UniProtKB/TrEMBL annotation, chain A:
Translocase in keyword set: no
Organism in which the protein naturally occurs: Nothobranchius furzeri
Similarity remark: Belongs to the globin family.
One of the GO biological process terms: hydrogen peroxide catabolic process
GO CC terms in record: blood microparticle; haptoglobin-hemoglobin complex; hemoglobin complex
Gene Ontology molecular function: haptoglobin binding; heme binding; metal ion binding; organic acid binding; oxygen binding; oxygen carrier activity; peroxidase activity
Protein name: Hemoglobin subunit mu
Keyword Chaperone: no
The entry's keywords: Heme, Iron, Metal-binding, Oxygen transport, Transport
Superkingdom of origin organism: Eukaryota
InterPro entries per the UniProt record, alphabetical: Globin (IPR000971), Globin-like_sf (IPR009050), Globin/Proto (IPR012292), Hemoglobin_a-typ (IPR002338), Hemoglobin_oxygen_transport (IPR050056)
Stretches that traverse the bilayer: none
Domain Globin: residue ranges: 4-144
UniProtKB/TrEMBL annotation, chain B:
Keywords tagged on the record: Heme, Iron, Metal-binding, Oxygen transport, Transport
One example GO MF annotation: heme binding
Gene Ontology annotations of biological process type: hydrogen peroxide catabolic process
Globin domain span: 3-147
Species of provenance: Nothobranchius furzeri (Turquoise killifish)
GO CC list: blood microparticle; haptoglobin-hemoglobin complex; hemoglobin complex
Protein name as catalogued: Hemoglobin subunit beta-like
Record-linked CDD domains: Hb-beta-like
InterPro entries recorded: Globin (IPR000971), Globin-like_sf (IPR009050), Globin/Proto (IPR012292), Hemoglobin_b (IPR002337), Hemoglobin_oxygen_transport (IPR050056)
Family: Belongs to the globin family.
Signal peptide: none
Length: 144, 147
């Protein structure tokens, strides 16, 4: 899987996620909350959790997701290696339809736009969109 | 017939009153051409779109962004009948411009992100969801006349 990101883009992505790691649960829970509000069908995957706004489940699950993304961002060339356990989890246990990854990615981008404002330039947005698409694609690799 | 809640109507009206309309359309189009470069296929006559900086400062992109903004404002003013309000626009995009309608979603996503950047914390998940619904109706209306 070739990921078309320049050195600059990789550095930018890594830097942004490093900065957001301390607020991982805020970013993650907000992205999830946005997704559940805009795309209610996505809630069907979370009947085992309390995903109401502000719930501790929402924060801890959001934190998990952001930390996994931040970890992947540290060395994008090694995404397949880094995500191997999560690939297995998503393919055989969670079996989340991959179209949903696009929805969460979009909500993640919206969250970043709210947090970073002007700093989330078109160049940063393009790089981040490519990274999240690649991340989602790698996550779905073991599906079939 | 789309059903809008009072919250959705008020929210959409509020968003349009708060955003910098001179900027949103152009910024969204500029982002779309940067983040999804294949969309440039429809803008062959726009001149220099070689990189993000060129796109952002391109006067034709800015001008066209304003046209797009005007259409969004028109939809916001015609919430109860966007479908009919957009009939001519839909025919234009399908028959004359021959735009793949999947691109409408790409531009809509960029509009959302630009609005999010402008409103920051005020663009709460609930406000965001109302705006996504609005844009989904706009996109569906633009797709309506494709045969």
């Amino acid at each position: 899987m070739t990921i078309m990101l320049s050195k600059k883009e990789k550095a930018l992505i890594k830097e942004i996620w490093e900065r957001l790691t301390p607020v991982a649960e805020n970013i993650g829970s907000e992205a999830l909350h946005r997704m559940f509000a805009s795309y209610p069908g996505t809630k069907t995957y979370f009947s085992h959790l309390d995903i109401s706004p502000g719930s501790s489940h929402l924060y801890s699950h959001g934190k998990k997701i952001v930390l996994a993304i931040a970890e992947g961002a540290k060395d994008i060339s090694q995404l397949t290696v880094a995500l191997a356990p999560l690939q297995t989890l998503h393919a055989y246990q969670l079996r989340i339809d991959p179209t949903n990854f696009k929805l969460l990615s979009h909500c993640m981008l919206v969250t970043l736009a709210c947090y970073l404002g002007e700093e989330f330039t078109p160049v940063a947005h393009a790089a981040m969109d490519k990274f999240l698409s690649a991340f989602a694609a790698v996550l779905a690799e073991k599906y079939r | 017939m789309v059903k809008w809640t009072d919250f959705e109507r008020a929210t959409i009206k509020d968003i349009f009153s708060k955003i910098d309309s001179g900027v949103v359309g152009s910024a969204a189009l500029s982002r779309c051409l940067t983040v999804y470069p294949w969309t440039q296929r429809y803008f062959g006559k726009f001149g220099n779109l070689f990189n993000a900086a060129a796109i952002a400062s391109n006067p034709k992109v800015k001008a066209h962004g304003k046209v797009i903004m005007g259409a969004l404002e028109m939809a916001a003013k015609n919430l109860d009948d966007i479908k009919n309000a957009y009939t001519q626009l839909s025919i234009l995009h399908s028959e004359k411009l021959q735009v793949d309608p999947d691109n409408f979603k790409l531009l809509a996503d960029c509009v959302t992100i630009v609005v999010a950047g402008q409103l920051g914390k005020a663009f709460t998940p609930e406000v965001h969801a109302a705006f996504e619904k609005f844009l989904a109706v706009v996109v569906a209306s633009l797709r309506k006349q494709y045969y």
